[in-house]
Design a protein that fits this description.
Blueprint lengths: L14 H6 L4 E2 L3 H13 L6 E4 L11 H18 L8 E3 L7 E4 L20 E4 L14 H11 L1
Antiparallel strand pairs: 1-3, 2-5, 3-4, 4-5
């Protein structure tokens, strides 16, 4: 049986899921988040996709104006609903040149740092990679659904 060998079937990993599982760092302090949002605003035309977990996956990136509106509105929501002296619920692949951002919903934190066997999914992702669907075991609360849809109405 010479010449016969088995090879692994080729698999193509989803770029979004690969990046989603990558290394992230937290923006622990509110002033750090302010600086970070400024870095994202500087790249508002870069082709950001914003995905609300539990809603449909976006098919196209946001415009500069939509990016700026999302940053303004999600920042206000985080500061209102995460009544802490620290932030710690926004994670990014790079604080200075981000391509992937995970924003955890203050009303569904669980253990977002990953030390849990089943950490919650973020509430929103902001990425330069077209997103793939993420299935949450927790349905999107109606209040968050209204907030999300109201952004784009």
């Amino acid at each position: 049986m010479f010449g016969l060998h088995r090879t692994k079937p080729e698999t193509t990993e989803d770029p979004f899921l690969t990046a989603f599982r990558g290394s992230f760092t937290s923006l622990m302090q509110w002033p750090h988040l302010d600086s970070f949002w400024n870095a994202v605003r500087e790249r508002a035309n870069a082709g950001w996709y914003v995905y609300c977990i539990g809603e449909s996956v976006p098919s196209k990136p946001l415009t500069r104006e939509q990016v700026e509106k999302f940053i303004y509105e999600v920042d206000a929501l985080l500061r209102r609903d995460h009544d802490e002296d620290y932030c710690g619920i926004v994670y990014t692949d790079s604080k200075t040149d981000p391509t992937f951002i995970k924003i955890f919903d203050p009303n569904n934190l669980g253990v977002s740092c990953g030390s849990s066997k089943n950490p919650p999914l973020p509430g929103w992702t902001m990425t330069l990679i077209p997103p793939s669907p993420l299935e949450s075991k927790r349905p999107l609360p109606e209040g968050r659904r209204r907030w999300w849809r109201g952004l784009w109405a």
